[in-house]
Specification:
The chain is of the alpha+beta class. It has helices at about 5-15, 30-40, 70-75, 85-90, 100-120, 195-205, 225-230, 240-245, 325-345, 375-385, 405-415, 470-485, 490-495, and strands spanning about 20, 50, 60-65, 125, 135, 155-160, 160-165, 175, 180, 185-190, 210-220, 250-255, 260-265, 270-285, 285, 295, 295-310, 315, 350-355, 365-370, 395-400, 425-430, 445-450. Helices cover about 30% and strands about 25% of the residues. The protein folds into 2 domains: about 5-315, Pnp Oxidase, Chain A; about 345-460, UbiD C-terminal domain-like, CATH 3.40.1670.10. Helix 3 packs across helix 9 (about 325-345), helix 4 packs parallel to helix 9 (about 325-345) and helix 5 (about 100-120) packs across helix 8. Strands 5, 6, 7, 8, 9, 10, 11, 14 and 17 form a 9-stranded antiparallel beta sheet that branches. Strands 19-20-21-23-22 form a 5-stranded mixed beta sheet, sandwiched between helices. Strands 1-2-3-18 form a 4-stranded mixed beta sheet.
Amino acid sequence: MAYKDLSEFINALEEAGQLKRISVQVSRDLEITEITDRLSKGDGAENKALLFENVEGFATPVLINTFGTEHRMSMAAGVENLEELNEKLSKLIDMRLPEGMSSTLSRAAELFGALRAAGLKPDKVRKAPCQEVVYEEDATLDMLPILKCWPEDGGRYITLMQVITRDPATNQRNVGMYRVQIFDGKTAAMHWQRHKGGAEHERLAQELNQTKIPAAIVLGGDPAQMWCASAPLPPGIDEYLLAGWLRGKPVTFVDCITQPLEVPANAEIVIEGYVDTEDQRLEGPFGDHTGYYTPADYFPTFHVTAITSKTNPVYPTTVVGKPPMEDYWMGKATERLFLPLMKIFMGEIVDINMPAEGVFHNLIIVSMKKRFPGHPFKVCYGLWGLGLMMLAKAIVIVDHDVDVHNLSEVGWHVLGNVDWRRDTIIVDGPVDQLDHSSVRESFGGKIGIDATAKGTFDAQVREWPSELIMSEEIKALVNQKWDSYGFDRQQESEAE
C-alpha cells in the first residue's frame, strides 16, 4: 500500500502494536544507540520501532528501528511477508531459462521496462508539506537531533536518508543511502563509497571539470521511498520508480528551493546543498554494520544552502553495528526482491540467503540445480559479475533441495560434502570498501565453495553415499499412532 508519509506509517505501526513511544528525556549521544541495540538483539516482543519524544535540547522527536523486524519491513514494502516481494516481481516477467545472451538481455530489459510502467509518471506539485518551513541563510544542521552512535565515532552522523544527485552528463537521477558526518552547521562529509552511484557522479563531474554537484539529503517520506535509497539498482534505473511500483502509485515531487533538483513532496525534512569535489576532508571513524569502526578517510564535503521541513517533523534515523540490527531486515528485503533478477541471468538458481552474520557482502548461500561439471563455480563467477554482487567475499553453493535459510542444514552439507582442495576456488577481485580484512582497500581474496553432492561428472571416483531419510510409510504410521505414544503434537509437526 502507499502510505501518505512517515506520520501515516507511524500511526500504522502503533495500531499494529509495533511502536513504542518513549517520553523520558534521552540524549542523542550514545544513549539512543544503546537502547536500540539492546532491543534489536533482545526478546522479539520488545523489538519495536522507537519514537523518542523528548530528546535533550530538541523539540523534534526521533524515530529509529522503523524497519527492525520482518513484520515492519513487510509493512513498509506493502506486503504480508518478504517472500511476497520475490513472488510479486517474478510475475512481471517470464522466468524460463533464456536460450542465449540476447534472450537474457531482452528479459532484463523487459523487467526494467515493467518497473518504469508500474512506477507511472511522477506527479509534480508547487507546494509541498516538506516546504512548510523554510530556512536559507539561517539554515543550520545544528537544529536537527543528529545522533552520535558509538563512542569512537568521528562525529554525529545522518544515517537514514535519501541522497539525490543527477548524472553530470545525462542528468539522470540517482538516489543513494550514504552516511553523512556533520562537521558544523553548514558542512558535512558525503561518504559515498567508490562502488556507489554518487561516487560515479563525482568522477564524471571531475572529468567534465565541474566542481559542484547539486545534492539533496531527504529524510522521511513513504517508507518504501526511504528503503529504496538502499536498493542496489542497475545504473540508469531510478530508485523512485521502484518505490512507485511498491507503493502502487507514483512518487510526488516538488522543486528544491535552492538547487536544480526535485525531492519527494511528502518528506519530513530536506537538506539542500551541493557536494564540492575539490573540498575533500577526513571523515570517520564510524561504527559500521561490520561491527567494527571504519577507519577515517577522505571524502567530498556537502555544503548546506537550505533546510526545509514540515511544521512538526519527525527525524528518522538508524544505527548500525554488530548484527542483527535494523539494516539486516532492509537488506533481507533487497535479497528477496532481487532474487528474480538473479534468475534472469542464472535460471539454475533456486534460492539465496545472505545471513545476518555475513553482514550482506561476506556470505551468500545459493541453492541451485546442477547439470554439468563445474556448474556451481559457473554460478559463483556469474554472481561476482552481477552488479554489487561483485563484493561478495564468500559464495557457498548447495543442491536445489537444501533450505538455504536453515543455517544448521547448510553447515551440515558444507562440512560433509566438501573436499577443500577440489571444491573451492579462491580469486582476487573487488571487495567492499568497508572490508578491513582485505590486504588492499576495496580489493582482496574471495572464495567460492561447491557444497553440492558429487557424482561421476564431478570426477568423483568413490561412490557417493545416500542421505538418511525415513520411508514415507513409517512416517505415516508414526503420525497415526502419535497420540498413543504420549507425546504432544508440536513434536510431531517439527518432525514433519
